[in-house]
Specification:
Blueprint: H1 6-41, E1 43-44, E2 47-48, H2 51-55, E3 70-72, H3 73-76, E4 87-92, E5 95-100, E6 105-113, E7 119-126, E8 132-142, E9 153-164, E10 168-173, E11 176-181, E12 188-193, E13 198-200
Antiparallel strand pairs: 1-2, 3-9, 4-5, 5-6, 6-7, 7-8, 8-9, 10-11, 11-12, 12-13
């Protein structure tokens, strides 16, 4: 390399790093604003969070836990995989449903947040029969400011079965969740939640 080119390359590198830093800062600010809307309404890009994204966290009925534990919703939106090409999203009485062409569907109802910003949802799967399989799903959100690519991550905190067409009642107090459902001992489940996890309170 000729020495007289070195100053020009250093200047070019400096401006390139500055541009990346500015873009990263803008992306972080935009994601922070998106996060505020999610906490208030559970919406992204002026629409309810796509039920298909929540379905990523659901294991098969024969399995014991979630394989996917985090989804970058900032990247997911606008991709072919999460477009509406294979079904449609509808809203009815507070529930948001995605129905596939097959007739199967995933539906959720957002119940709000705990004091530590964990979101509560009831999520239902159904379709080819009379079954309606319900779960209580807990998720939280975070942004990694160190990443240059835009990111707004939805993470699974907990998943608790509510049965097939079984009655349930869910109430909260600060960072505790109280579930009344026949699946649990004495028909009650009490959860104490920290920022990133919840644990059952034994009586």
């Amino acid at each position: 390399m000729k020495l007289y080119l070195l100053p020009f390359l250093l200047v070019l590198l400096m401006f390139s790093n500055l541009s990346c830093s500015q873009n990263s800062s803008e992306d972080f600010q935009n994601s922070s604003e998106d996060l505020k809307i999610i906490h208030d309404k559970f919406e992204y890009k002026n629409k309810p969070i796509d039920p298909k994204l929540l379905q990523e966290f659901l294991p098969w009925l024969s399995d014991g836990g979630s394989i996917v534990t985090s989804v970058n919703i900032a990247v997911a939106y606008g991709t072919d995989e999460y477009s509406d090409y294979n079904g449609k999203i509808t809203e009815n009485n507070g529930a948001v449903r995605f129905t596939y062409d097959s007739g199967n569907y995933t539906e959720y109802e957002w119940l709000g947040t705990l004091d530590n910003d964990i979101h509560l949802l009831t999520i239902t799967q159904g379709g080819g029969g009379t079954g309606r399989f319900n779960d209580l799903m807990l998720v939280n959100f975070d942004i990694n400011p160190k990443k240059q690519d835009r990111n707004l991550n939805m993470n699974i905190v907990g998943l608790y079965p509510l049965g097939d067409r079984m009655k349930y009642e869910i109430t909260t107090y600060k960072n505790k969740i109280f579930v009344e459902n026949e699946l649990y001992k004495n028909n009650k489940l009490v959860l104490n939640c920290k920022k990133d996890y919840c644990f059952e309170v034994k009586k």
